Amino acid sequence: MEKIIFFGLVIPIMAYVLYLGGMAIMNGFKSKEANRAEKEEAESDGRETSETSDEQSSNLSDEFTKLNDLKEKGIISQEEFEKAKNKLLNN
After folding, report:
1. What does the alpha-carbon distance between residue 81 and residue 63 come to, in Å, rounded to a whole number?
2. Which of 87, 39, 91 is nearest to 67 (CA)?
3. pLDDT of residue 25
4. In this structure, what is the dihedral angle of CA atoms 56, 61, 62, 68, given to the nearest 10 degrees?
5. How many domains are contained in the chain?
6. Res 54: pLDDT
7. Cα–Cα dist 75/55, whole Å
8. Per the count of CB atoms within 10 A, which of 5, 31, 33, 82 is most buried?
9. What's the pLDDT at 55?
10. 0.85 exceeded by the pTM?
11. CA 62 to CA 56: how far, in whole Å?
């Protein structure tokens, strides 16, 4: 009789403990995968940001070169060059 009571209580309790353990492990895997996806997304955003800043600096450099060429050829005056340069730097 004592064995029936013991196994009647222990088996469901053990099954419940195993269920909780399995759920905790699965939640850990899901969280780890979510963190990995977030990290990859952040890294890709960082790459896009750095690529964009490289493009902007390259474009700014090209614009300054064009302005300088125009000034050297006498197409624009020193004042116009300064205004255009300030406009580029402020944007």
Report:
1. 11
2. 87
3. 93
4. 150
5. 1
6. 59
7. 27
8. 82
9. 62
10. no
11. 10
Assigned token pair, 48 = 């896009």
Q: Distance between CA 49 and CA 39 in Å, rounded? A: 15
Residue position matching structure tokens 């309790």: 13
Report the C-alpha gap between 34 and 75 in whole angstroms.
58
How does DSSP classify residue 91?
Answer: -
CA distances from 18 to 4, 7, 35, 76, 91 (A): 21, 16, 26, 81, 62
Task: For residue range 58-74, list pLDDT tens digits in order.
Answer: 788 888 888 889 889 98
The DSSP result for 24-82, as a single string, is HHHHHHHHHHHHHHHHHHHHHHHHHHHHHHHHHHHHHHHHHHHHHHHHHHTSS-HHHHH
**Structure tokens that stand for 65 in this block:** 């070169």
Task: Find the domain containing 57 and state its range.
Answer: 2-90
How is residue 80 written in tokens? Answer: 């116009």
